[in-house]
Design a protein that fits this description.
The complex is a heterodimer of chains A (about 300) and B (about 270). Chain A contains 13 helices and one strand. Chain A has about 300 residues and is mainly alpha-helical. In chain A, α3 crosses α8, α6 runs antiparallel to α10 and α6 packs across α12. The longest helix of chain A is centred in the middle third of the chain and has 28 residues. With about 270 residues, chain B is α/β, with parallel strands linked by helices.
Chain lengths: ~300, ~270
């Protein structure tokens, strides 16, 4: 359906004619560039780099503004996962007694690492999903590489996560069954980098999907819940718990499981399994590349009303 | 293309070429679940309607020109600006520009909870100005906006006028080659109006191009060298400021007199 035709107003002036233009005006005026086409990859990355201050300033401001109104303020960033851990420990550790019945050693440190590490991916995906929709006005007003938006969401979550990591380390050492500080803890830096790459990649995918399908944001919490349970955060993924061995293999190949597993191996003095680290790294790199490619493919659409 | 600061064109050379531009919005008549569309195919096509905001518009703008755009509410003025700036997708036709046009729209990047100082940083970096360049120009920006006393207060404490002055000062901190001002969105007092007009004229002296959307014919006559008149997305006049503005004012006047029989459509 199109709008009805309106009579042309009587201007008393000649109707403007299309100027005499060559098919490609750039032939006549080489200094012109086409508007509304994606920048070439190199220029795009350079523009992204020029906006790095913006990508960092926004999240810092937001973090500050976010919790200003509640009494405990910033502390909520830390309190949140701690309360979650307490709830899960009560249910799975104390009531269901996973430790004795399922042969899980040292359940509390296992749970602490799992919840805190997975939470970084969960919050990143959920923040990324909102970025385009929430910043519609900005997208319609200023020309910048749109990848700045998911990037700034991840920067924000990464900063929050960097506050939780030391807390996590202190917690695992003080609870019963936790390891003493050791050199493998340095590997957490590797986990952090790989996880951030993965989070950025997947949140770009989710950002574009929730731009196309508004329902995405309603569905996301449930998808994340399912993902949480299938990534071995609460209970280990092994044939003792999941009888179907094919399913065990599939779940063990999933990136969030691998990231959580890497962190546990690093922190909880587990043996380091090279295949877990290699697979995890492969996932992170490919997720970042695929996510970036998929997000940028719709670069010029994001301003649509 | 990205260097907003460098004016690379000599006076008189084209800075913006718009060739048969169409911009059509598809608006959903209700908030129909879009996932459904993905699964069952597009059978519900009749539930959205197209709005042809800009139709077959062609013109060439040159450096040193200040182009006013006039037209009734909903005639497509703001959409045309956003299309030229590459901010909304183009449905058909081509737009070429000598550099990315800067739309005066930093407001969207600003955070009411943060101080004016941090907002200068925020708005400026959003436009791609580096931190160093911003720090060099910080005092100028603040002085030009006339908000020295307030700069460390949260932006929400600023009046609407102070906010739009700060916006203008940030957007023009580095002289963009092509500046677009959508005045239907901004406010400012008479004294600031004069200063911003002066800065716009200064830009023209440096061979920039300015687009000005305004309902105030006074501003258009003061600043512009050429005027485009849009009506329902069509370009109906393009020429000398006084000629087009006179004709447009006659048209508005005639419409006002006819209003009792033909109430204008809501915009």
């Amino acid at each position: 359906m199109t709008q009805p035709d309106h009579p042309r107003p009587d201007t008393g002036l000649p109707q403007p004619q299309r100027p005499d233009l060559p098919d490609d005006p750039r032939e006549r005026w080489p200094h012109l560039h086409r508007v509304g086409v994606r920048l070439p990859l190199r220029d795009y990355l350079r523009e992204l780099w020029r906006r790095r201050e913006f990508a960092i300033t926004v999240p810092l401001g937001e973090l500050k503004a976010q919790n200003q109104d509640s009494a405990l303020g910033q502390i909520w960033h830390l309190l949140n996962p701690l309360l979650l851990i307490a709830v899960y420990y009560l249910i799975f550790g104390v009531i269901l007694q996973v430790e004795e019945r399922r042969g899980v050693d040292n359940y509390l440190p296992f749970l602490i690492v799992g919840v805190i590490i997975f939470d970084y991916t969960r919050t990143s995906i959920q923040a990324g999903a909102r970025m385009i929709v929430k910043n519609r006005k900005l997208v319609q007003s200023i020309n910048f590489p749109r990848a700045v938006l998911p990037l700034s969401a991840i920067v924000s979550e990464a900063i929050a996560h960097l506050y939780s990591l030391p807390i996590m380390l202190v917690l695992v050492t003080v609870v019963p069954g936790g390891p003493a500080p050791q050199w493998t803890w340095l590997l957490l830096v590797v986990v952090f980098v790989l996880q951030s790459m993965f989070n950025l990649g997947i949140s770009m995918v989710v950002a574009r999907l929730s731009f196309h399908f508004r329902d995405m944001q309603q569905l996301l919490p449930f998808v994340m819940r399912l993902y949480f349970y299938s990534s071995g955060v609460l209970i280990p993924i092994n044939p003792e718990i999941i009888p179907n061995t094919a399913l065990v293999t599939i779940l063990q190949l999933n990136p969030a499981y691998l990231i959580v597993e890497m962190a546990r191996e690093a922190v909880l003095a587990g043996p380091l399994e090279p295949q877990v680290w290699l697979l995890g790294a492969a996932w992170s790199v490919s997720m970042l590349l695929v996510g970036f490619w998929y997000f940028r493919a719709a670069e010029n659409e994001y301003g649509r009303v | 293309m990205s260097e907003t600061a460098v004016v690379s064109v000599t006076a008189g050379a084209p800075t913006v070429v718009v060739d048969r531009l169409d911009i059509t919005y598809r608006l959903y008549a209700d908030s129909a679940p879009k996932l459904r569309k993905a699964f069952v195919g597009d059978r519900r096509q009749r539930e959205y309607r197209s709005v042809e905001a800009v139709r077959d518009v062609s013109f060439v703008a040159s450096s040193g020109e200040a182009i006013g755009i006039v037209g009734h509410n909903g005639s497509g003025k703001s959409t045309l600006l956003r299309g030229i700036a590459g901010l909304v997708p183009i449905t058909d036709g081509d737009v070429y520009a000598s550099s990315i046009p800067v739309l005066l729209g930093v407001a969207a990047a600003l955070e009411p909870e943060l101080s004016g100082r941090r907002n200068v940083l925020l708005g400026g970096t959003a436009l791609g100005i580096t931190r160093d360049e911003l720090e060099d120009r910080f005092d100028d920006i603040v002085a030009f906006a006339g908000v020295e006393e307030f700069i460390d207060l949260p932006l929400r404490a600023f009046s609407a006028g102070m906010r739009s002055r700060l916006q203008f000062a940030i957007a023009t901190a580095i002289t963009p080659e092509i500046l677009m001002v959508d005045e239907s969105l901004s406010t400012g007092d008479a004294e600031f109006k004069e200063r911003s007009d002066e800065r716009i004229r200064g830009m023209l002296g440096e061979a920039g191009t300015v687009f000005l959307v305004s309902h105030a014919m006074r501003s258009i006559r003061d600043v512009c060298t050429r005027v485009l008149w849009l009506d329902h997305g069509l370009l109906v006049a393009d020429g000398d400021t006084d000629e087009v503005v006179d004709a447009y004012e006659r048209h508005v006047e005639a419409r006002r007199r006819k209003r009792p029989e033909h109430p204008p459509e809501p915009s």
